[in-house]
Every structure is written in C-alpha cells, then in structure tokens.
Amino acid sequence: MQPEPSRGRPDHNISMWGAPGSGKTTLLAALFIALTRRNDDWKIVGSDPASSDYLIDRTNALSRGKVFPEASMTLERYHWTLIGPAPQKTGFWGRKAKPGPPARIGLSMIDAPGGLFGTGRRPAGGVSAPDGAGDPRRQELLDNLERSRGIVFLFDPIREFTFGDAFDHMHAPLTRLAERMLASGEFTDGKLPHHIAVCVTKFDDPRVLETAEKRRLLTVDLDDPYRLPRVDSEDARELFRELCQVSASGNADMVLNALDQFFHPDRIRFFATSSIGFYVDRRTKRFDWDDFQNMVPGEADEDSRIRGQLHPINVVEPMLWLGQRLAAIRPATEIS
Amino acid sequence: MTRREIGFEWALEGKRPGAHDDYELLSWSDDRLGPEVFEEIRSRYATGLSADLPQVTIAVAATRERERVSRHIVLAIQEWSGHRDATNRKIVYTRWFYVPYHELAAHPVSYEALYHALAGLPVTPSPPLAVQVPEFDPAAVAPGPDARCAAALLLTGRPVCVVGADGVPMIERLRFLDTVAALLPYGMRARLTAATWTSSTARHKIRLSFARHAPEDAYEVRWGYGAEITQRDTPAPLCLDLLTRSDVRLADMLRGLAGRTEPLSFGPADRPVAVRLLEHSGYPELLSGSADEAEREPQETEDPRDGGGPDDPAGRGTVAPASGAPDLPGREPAPERNGGDVGPAGASPPAGNARRPTLPRSVLSRLGRGRGRAPAPGAPPGDTAAPTTPYRRTADEGPAPGAVPLSMQAALGGLEQAGHGKRARSGRGPHAKVTVTVAFATLGITLIGLGVVMLVRSSGGDPPTGPDIAGAQPGTVVIQAADRPEDAFATNVVAEVVRRSGYRFEIRRSDTPTAAAPVEKPTVVLVEGPASALAGEPPAARGFVQVGSIPVPTPDVLVYDIGLITPEKLRAAFQGQDKDVRVSLPDTAPGELAEALKRRSPSLRLESVSGRDPLRALRDKAVQAAVVPRSAAGDGGYARLDGPDGLPGRTLLVLCNEAALDVLHDALGKVAGAIDPGVLASAEFDWPGKAAARVVGAVLPPGRPSVVSRDGEQESDQGQGSFWLALVLISAGGAAGFLAFIVAIRGPSRFESRP
After folding, report:
1. Cα–Cα distance, A22 to A26 (Å, whole number)
2. Residue B248 has what pLDDT?
3. Which residues in chain A are contacts of B36 at CB distance < 8 A?
4. Straight-line distance from the first to the last Cα atom of chain A, in angstroms, rounded to the nearest whole number
5. CA distance A282 to chain B (A)
6. How many domains does one find in chain A?
7. Size of the A and B interface in Cβ pairs below 8 Å
8. Domain that holds residue A42
C-alpha cells in the first residue's frame, strides 16, 4: 500500500469515465493546482518521470498559459502518489511524540478518449460489434475498468442539456464490465465491486450554478478566504437529479438508476466539480455573484482561455475519497 | 535519380468542425480497402497527440483479398486541421495512406520521400491515386552512433525508443527513422513500425519510436549518443560491431541491405536471417576474395544462388525460402567429403560456392543456432574451413562448427588459407606446418605477455600514481559510509565520481556515518534513505545537504522459470495483481525481506527453502520463481526479473558538506539521477566496482586518475577480475604454445590427404 514513489508503481487503479469533452483530462491537469490550493498537507508526486512531466506541463499550461488541454486521442496512463500529512501521535503523559509516517495513496489513473465509452459508431459499410467491442482500445479500456476498483465518472450537464447522451456513454461499457465481473465471480451480490465518484462537472457554468442556487444547495466554507460557493457531497446527488430533468434526450435519469443498480449505495459519492473554479478578482479576493465566469470562450480561431487564477472545486476530493476507501479495503479485496 | 509512380489508398480521421463527438473516420478512398481496414489500423497504432504537429507514424498492415495476402506500409500524418470542435478544442487530422509493399520493393523509397509526396496532397485526394516518389539513395545515408545502436538493438526483437530529441524537428526525426531502416535489410520495412513522436504515458505498439521517456520494455537510445549495449542484448553487440567496423565499407553495406527486399519480420525466425544479411552485406570484399580463390582452385566456384553479393543483380531482393535444415554438409569440401548430405531443399552439393563470412561461434550459439551436425569422422576438431553452402533463409540454420570470427581470421593471417590449400590438395605440408607453428607460437607468446602484464597491474590494484598526478590534485574527499558489503556499489559510484572530478578519495567506515563524518574536510556521506523498504528514518546530519540518492543493488535477486511463468505475470504478482504465484525464499534471507514481501504483495505464496540450495524448489518445479543470492543466480540458467517490480530495495542518500558541495554537487546529482533502479537486478550489477565505473562512465567524461588514500579497503572487484583474466590468458597462451610444439613435431602427418 505504500509504494516507493520513485521505484514502484502505485497499487490503486482508478479509471476516468465520461463522454467526450466532459472534462476528464482537464480535471487531471488541475490536480496539482487543486492540492496546492488546499490548506492541508496533501501533495501529489509522480511515480515515474513521464507522470511527473504531465503534472509539470499541465500545471504550467493551466496556470501560466491559461489554456485547456487538447482532447485525448489514446489511452493515457498516469502513475501518481498522493502524500498526506503525517499523523501526530499523542505522547505519553501529554509529552510531544514523534510524528508517524505520512499517509500515501498510490494512484494509477487511466484517461481515455470519451468516444471509447460511446456506442462505437462506424462509417457506413463498416462491420463491427454494436458497441465497437472489436476495437483494441476499447478492449484495453475494459481491461482497465475490470482491474481497477475506483472510477471517476464525469457527468457533463451542459452536454446533457445540449445532446443528452450521457447514458449512451455509460450503458455499453457498464454492461460489458458487469459481464466480465460476473464471469470472474465478482458480481455475486449483484453489485460491482467498484467505488464510483460521480462528478457533476462544469459547476462554474452559470446554468449549473443557478440550478444549484435555485434548489438552495449552495453552501460556503467559512475557512475559504474567497467564499466560493460549493455544493456538499450530500447535496450533490440532488443537484445531479435536478440537472437530469433538463436532459435533451430525457435519458439522464437512467444514468442515476443504472448507478444505483450496479453499485453499492455506500460506494457511490457525488461531487459538484469545477476544474478551473470561479473567477475571483485579485483586488477584492472575494467571489462576486456579478462576475464569476472564469472561462472565456475563444473567438473564431482562438482557444478558450482561463480568465483568472484557478480555484479548482472538488477536484482532489473525489481522488482522496477513492484513494482512502481503496486503501482501507485493499487487503480484504486481495484475500478474496 | 529515378522517380516512379507509387499507388496508394487513403483515409482521413478527425472530427467535423463544431462536432461534439470523438475522433472518427471522416472519409476514405473507397477503392479496394473498406473502412473497416482503416478503422482497425487507426485503433491499433494510436500514439497520442503531440503539441508539436505534424508528426508521422509508420505502420504496417496485411490485407487478404481472394486468398491473396498483400502487405502494406501505412504512413499516418498527424496535422492540425484548422477547425475546432464543439468545445472549441483544435481538431487534429490524421491522414492514413496505405502503400502496397510490393511496389516499394520494386522501387525502394525512403520514408521521407514518401512523406513529402503524400503530405502535399489534398486531405481528400481524388483519383488517380498515385504519386511520384524518387528512388531511395543509400549513398545519402550517414548514420551516427544513435542510429547504429538503434538498428542493432532492433534485431533483439525488443522495441527501441529514442529519447533526448525533444527539440529536434519532425523531418529530422523522420530522416533518423530512414537511417535506422537503411541499416537493416530493406525487407524489414514490411514489418517495421516507427513514429516520430509517441506519448510517454500511452502504451503503443510502435517498434522504433521517439518519446520523452522510454517505455519499460523498450531499449532507450539517446539522441546523438546511442546506447549502452551489453553482451546480454544478443545479437545487438555483434550487429553493432558489424555496423561500426572500420573494415566495412558503409556504402557497400547500405547498397547491399537496400537490395534485400524480401519481407522479413522481427520475430525469432527471421532475426538471425537479418543478422546474416547484415553480415553478408558488410563484407563484399570477402566475396570477391573468394572469387579470386575460386579462380586458383577450380573446384570451388561461386554459385549465383548464394544470395549473391550486394551488387549481384541475380541475388538482389531474393531470399530463398526456408529449407529448415542446417547447411553443415555444404561446409565440407566436396572432393574430400564425397558430397556429404544433400541440402534438404534440393540444393546440389555446394561444390565451390562463394565463401561467406561467418559469425563468431559464441554469438551463433547465443542466437540458438550452431547445434548442427557433428563434423564428419576424421575431421580435425578445430577445422577452420569456411562454409561453402549457398545462402539459404532457414530459421534454424547452423554455422560451421569450426567457423572462426573474422577478427580471429585476421589475427591468424594466412593460416586459414593454408588450411584450405591442404584440404584441397596435398603436398603443402611443410609450408603449412611452418605457418601454423609460427602462428600458434606467436599467439601463445602474445597471450602470455598480455596475461603477465594484467597480472602485474592487478596485483597492486591501485590506480597509477606519480608526482605529476598527485601534485596536480591536492584535495582529498572523504567518503563516509556504513560498514555493509551491499553498499559497495554506492560507495564505488561516489568514489568514481570523485576520481573523475580529479580528486583523491578516502573511504572511511562507521556504523554511524553521519556522526563519524569529519565536518572540516570535504566529505560525502552515504546514509540510509527514507524510501528504503527495509529502513527507517535517515539520521540527521548537521551541516550536510542531500545531493541525490543512489539505489542499492539487492544482495538477492529474483529468478524464474520461463517455462512456468512469464515475466509479466510475475511482475503482476509482485504488484499484487496475481494471486497464484509461488516463490521460494532461502532461510538465510533476512527476516525483513520476507516481511517486506508479505507487506507489499500479500497474495504471494512464499515458501522457505534451505539456503544451501536456494534453487531446489525451482528445479523441482514446486515454485515458479525463487529469491536467490546473486552468487547462485547464474546456476541453472534461469532468467532474472529486471524492472522496478521485484524485491524491495534500499536507497542511500548522498549528503555533502559545504566543502564537498562546491566541487561535487553537479556531478554527484547527475550520476545519482541517471541510475535506473529497474536494472539493478541484472547480472551487470553483480560486480559492484565494474558496475559503478560503467554507470559513472556513461554520465561523466573520463577524468584524470587520482590517488586512493585508504582507511579501509577500497571496494573494487577490478583487481580480482583482472587477476582471473590474466590467469586465463596465460593458460590460453600456454595451450597455444603447446599446440605449436605439437604441430612442429607431428605436423606433416596431420596434413596428409585422406584417401
């Protein structure tokens, strides 16, 4: 459970799952900044040079270049270690004791192009399985889902409102995954053994924020100097349900039902996430309801850009929750 | 330069402007190849997305049409489309071009020429689908050490990744791919996949790639420098030797290789063939020499079916089908062996084929060949007759049992020719006798001389000292280390860095190195690192700064039976992903090792065996892998598990005080950062002194020798190795002298022709 960051590979495989453009790559790119913005001592370290490079490059691109990453074209794998604060042990008779070793959570993240989760449409005349199962990249993706025990599922409410295809990008891989787990005897209680963090992305979009505000789901962390609005994890499910109502296809509610059917209730957690966060004026240093949009859509041939500083919201939390849950159950999982 | 039209089919992968979907095939030529063919290739050879476009990927594909298989070289050009998708992200076009290999075999072209011809076409080309491409000119190829290393390593069958070329333009990288391909038989292009860029975080199936970091299973070749090739990387050392020999005319070799257009794979059956073609193309002068010899001796005439020389139009591009049998019979001179056996493919007895240069026997045996038929009764055991069979493409082709390396042929001068003459006709006995006697005597004296010199040098073990050297280096750096034998590698690394930096060193030992370290002198301290799996927190060292960390080669290594378990499965087991793997552990291993293994890989089934025979359970097939001391790892011929996933190891922190920091900081940091913990289990690290010298030598330029001042004993195995090598040389020299004596008194009777 405690791999050496420079020498071993982390143990906990976590897969990103979401439609194209839902923000998988951007969420990973914002991880370092999100951890740095926190007041605790959690940090992220690459477990191999390529994974460290990614952290450095993406952090620079987001914080300095203010540009979003390009779409993934193949399965990318990142090996990172989350290193937490060292727990302070209580000394005998109140004396100061030596701090224990810091908590470490090894993460192997898989970021796949969103199209691989889709229905595998082929050009006219193409002969293929209905979900493109013959595609070696899809096979690799399913292999990874089967091996992993943690999933970060990204639900893009804007895309759902526009195209309504979240369920299309969920049911085929979910069915294949269940089939594999059944065959390997890990579907005995009728549920998948995975933990799933459901991230409602683009929380910084005015339409999503206003939905949360109308439903009175917003809260503010008193320790947050910027007073950024948030949705507690307990209320994020409600936000998800609310946003499903405006699905273009009307199928979004089936996503929620499928989650309940395939995963243990205590292994699902909802998060309202924004990788870039809200715009905060550097002089006032306070969230402003009249001026909070941090993304500036690009003109004809320009990239969309990030307007101000990044204040990622619920980017680290899904990873930490998954990492901690997986670390807690890992020995039991391996024995079984 | 001739130009010819080359046909192609194409497909365009991308997104439509403003699309919300992922990448897909947008359009294709709709000729012979259907969209499913393009779908398959684009999913199979995805390399990721570079920020620096365009980039080129070279893939290969085979299609079947009415039971006829066609091979294609597929060029994929990735470039920005100028459009954006629904989320305003830039859209990339990947343009796939299928070019039939048979057209490229008839009219060899370079990848670069093909790229220039195809890249200029519109994104959806219209018929006629053909482009003019100039013929490949081998004379334009100028391989550097990196290209030569890459070509040699490709012949091991493992992928090769070029690193350190981040700022190199794509077209220069493509030229490099061309250069590497030119150093292989042209037919290997039918199977060579290559890319000017690959993502370091994506898995791919590209055999020759550029990346920022090499994948775990690939050889790393550094741009502009090359790679360290060891004897374990068979047959790369031999191939590199062929590609770098001064007596090989590169132009002839490249021309010869370009003519070998029959498709060849990188599989175990075809790689030895490729090595032979490489060797064959490198020595056209030997072929012409054979022809001269043939003129003198009419019995041995050149057979045009021998694959021919590189310039032989009859042999150009033709590789005979595998006969499946070694060609030993043909090695025997026809008049004396009475024809021997006839080749299984129906080849007539090779009564005088061109003499073909052969590989060293040791190399051929490592290639899995050379287990041919025993020499005919009566044949001298050390017969140096050159093979005389026509060249045949056979997977298990064996070498002549007495074939000698080319270097040895050169060393022996006219000996081999004398032997030929003797076999061909009798009556040269006295001349041959003198020649052989002189040759053996010379060889014996040379070997004994070399051995004595090495013995004298190894007995002291100290580097050369002298007033000029000692006077030039007044400073001495203290290396303070713990008294643990397994730390010898790290200590030697630091000592070598100090030496190469032009300073003396003094190794001091203590159980508490940080406490014993002198603060007033330039000092480097090696202390246990916190990342070590078997260690606790590092002790504090006042006034010292960490400049790096050095992984420690474990005293035990993990060996496995390849027939029982694959290395991938074993790695998975050590990562905790496979639950049914049994590993034996000697009872002499430290208890911490067993505990660390159980902690890290609780699903492993560890079985204790006697430390006196740690391989017993593996031999009995009771376990699939065994933890054994390095000294026993070579017994039984089991493979070792390399890579980071193996036995838990330790790391030593390198601390410097201020005085040492000024002079050693950069060098120590650079060397420490260059040590790959994933290779420490290999046999190269069994001798810590040599391993340290090699590791440092790969990073730092050779420095001036310095004086070693010792408190304890310098940990060097160099002296020991030299001693044994000297003994071997002296023994071999003695044997050669004895042979010279025997030949001198009994020679004539040995050269008489047999009835």
Report:
1. 9
2. 79
3. 122, 125-128
4. 17
5. 27
6. 1
7. 139
8. 12-86+100-116+131-335
Q: Are residues B737 and B688 in the same domain?
A: no
Domain C-terminal end among B181, B210, B239? B210
On whether residue A6 sits in a domain, the answer given is: no
Residue from A73, A144, A168 whose CB has the most chain B CBs within 10 Å, to mutate: A73
**Chain B CB within 8 Å of residue A70 CB:** yes
Q: Do A75 and B203 touch (CB under 8 A)?
A: yes
Asked whether the predicted pLDDT for residue B316 surpasses 60, the reply is no
- At residue B317 the predicted structure's pLDDT band, cuts being 50, 70 and 90, is very low
pLDDT score for A203: 94
- Residue A4 belongs to some domain of the structure: no
Domain that holds residue B515: 467-553+649-715
Interface contact A147, partner B, CB < 8 A: yes
Question: For chain A, which ranges sit under pLDDT 70?
Answer: 1-11, 88-99, 119-134, 300, 330-336
A94: in domain: no
Contacts of B201 in chain A (CB under 8 A): 50-51, 54, 76-78
Closest CA–CA distance from residue B34 to any residue of chain A (Å): 8
pLDDT, residue B31, reads 80
Strand partners, A108: A13, A79
Domain edge (last residue) among B588, B615, B640: B640
What value does the CA radius of gyration of chain B take, rounded to a whole number of Å?
30
Q: Could you tell me which residues come within 8 angstroms of residue B614 by beta carbon, excluding any fewer than 6 positions away?
A: B584, B586, B588, B626, B627, B628, B629, B632
Q: What angle do CA A306, A308, A312 make, to 5 degrees?
A: 75
Q: Give the domain CATH number at A146.
A: 3.40.50.300
- 3 state SS of B421: helix
Which of B146, B192, B196 lies closest to B171 in space, CA to CA?
B196
Could you report the per-residue pLDDT of B357-406, keeping only the tens digit for each?
A: 344 443 344 333 333 333 333 333 333 333 322 333 333 333 333 333 44
Q: Would the CB atoms of B202 and A147 count as touching at under 8 Å?
A: no
The gap from C-alpha B530 to its chain's centroid, in whole angstroms, comes to 35
pLDDT of residue A91: 61
Q: What is the total count of domains within chain B?
A: 4
ipTM of the complex in this document: 0.80
